[in-house]
Amino acid sequence: MMKKTYSYAMLLLAGAFAMTACSDDNGSNPTLVQPTQFVLNDLATANGTIDLQKSQSVVLSWSQPVPYTDMNSPVVPTYTVQLSSKGSFNTEFDANLEENPNADFISLDETYSNGQNVAINAETIDRALMQLNNWEEDQVPQTLALSVRVKAAVRDASFNEYNPIYSNVIGLSIIPYYMELKPADPEIWWLIGGDICDGSWGDGVGTSVVPMQTIDGAEYDKKSGAGEIQWIGYLAGNGFKLRGSMDDGWATQWGQGDAFGSYVKNDGGSGNITVPEAGIYTVSLNTATDVLKIEKYSGAADVFSGMAISGSFNDWGDTEMSPCHTYAGAENHDWYITHTFAAGDEVKVKQSGSWDYNKGGAFVTYSAGMYAYGVSNGDNLSIPEAGTYLILFNDITGYIRFIKQ
């Protein structure tokens, strides 16, 4: 089951590096044998200059150096595209620093496992150049000589890189454009396991996993999104974990160490976090300091038989939500529904069949939708953009999250 395992390939790789690091003379230990160079192909453009605002993507291709161990086991490298507007690659831009005055290149976030016809989003390139150069609107050059190279490195299960090598540098003529850089979304982790939703350890949002929540009044790093997040709900003692991403193969996770209260990060051998007695708990994680706390909740929490969304779209009637936590013995406090709205629709979350409990407020927008810190009898929430949204609601905190589908 994925709750405690890395992929087989990751384990082999991690094991290979562990053996290579040993100082003994055991001749059976594999050693990484890696090429020293590879080729990034020149890019042929129709008119010689790429207008980033009018283009969807820039397609790159490069040869693929496949490193082997000396026991003839192939290892798949990870490729990262790097950009420089200054023609040099000496100091990398670090998004965690307040200022990067000496940075002369930046690595794009997305990585690749092959080098055939890799489409780099044009907007991603422009955003990276805005970050690197911190241009004001009147400082964006009309054309720019962009230097591009690719890094190849082998990664272990904790994303540590080994023996990176770099391609040749190619030059592109581009037309950048001004882009208003928005603060990073708050970093959100996900709860999964026997105590969560259907208890299946699956990946369905609302049915198998739930996201943790931002906290009203908390501050989040504008560049990394790091800060304090929480979830409050019922834990029965069946075990659970935290995942940093649902598509990274469990590379980022929090589990239990020797006993409850001892927690470890990114350890595939960690145990499931198991509370000593059933009850309502506050799970809080500071993603800036890597501190995880799980404590008994001291407040009162009503148990509702039903929750609904209500608004201008249904004449302020009830459109029923579904309970997230449905495993045997669960006490549910999270709800979900998928619904299609028109721009300007007004909505609230309320107790089924009654307005005694209802939550409104004001939306905060983020890259995937909106969220709100629900206020009792608060203002109607206005949908800013038409579309289909997955709505998640916690009836203890009143937190409402809209994820655009």
Describe how the helices and strands are arranged.
Layout: H1 8-21, E1 32-33, E2 49-51, E3 57-60, E4 68-69, E5 78-84, E6 106-112, E7 118-121, H2 122-133, E8 144-155, E9 161-166, E10 170-175, E11 190-193, E12 209-211, E13 213-214, E14 228-235, E15 240-243, E16 253-256, E17 263-265, E18 279-286, E19 291-296, E20 307-311, E21 319-320, E22 322-323, E23 334-341, E24 346-351, E25 358-360, E26 364-366, E27 369-373, E28 375-376, E29 381-382, E30 387-394, E31 399-404
Parallel strand pairs: 2-10
Antiparallel strand pairs: 1-4, 3-7, 5-6, 5-8, 8-9, 8-10, 11-12, 11-15, 13-14, 14-18, 15-16, 16-17, 18-19, 20-21, 20-24, 22-23, 23-30, 24-25, 24-29, 25-28, 26-27, 27-31, 30-31
Descriptive overview:
- There is one protein chain.
- A hairpin with a 4-residue loop joins β30 (387-394) and β31 (399-404).
- 6% of the residues lie in helices and 36% in strands.
- Residues 1-27 have low confidence and may be disordered.
- The radius of gyration is 25 Å and the shape is globular.
- Strands 2, 5, 6, 8, 9 and 10 form a six-stranded mixed β-sheet that branches. Strands 20, 21, 24, 25, 28 and 29 form a six-stranded antiparallel β-sheet that branches. Strands 22-23-30-31-27-26 form a six-stranded antiparallel β-sheet, with no helix packed on it.
- The protein contains two helices and 31 strands.
- The chain starts with 7 loop residues before the first helix and ends with a strand.
- The chain has helices spanning 8-21, 122-133; strands at residues 32-33, 49-51, 57-60, 68-69, 78-84, 106-112, 118-121, 144-155, 161-166, 170-175, 190-193, 209-211, 213-214, 228-235, 240-243, 253-256, 263-265, 279-286, 291-296, 307-311, 319-320, 322-323, 334-341, 346-351, 358-360, 364-366, 369-373, 375-376, 381-382, 387-394, 399-404.
- By secondary structure, the chain is mainly beta.
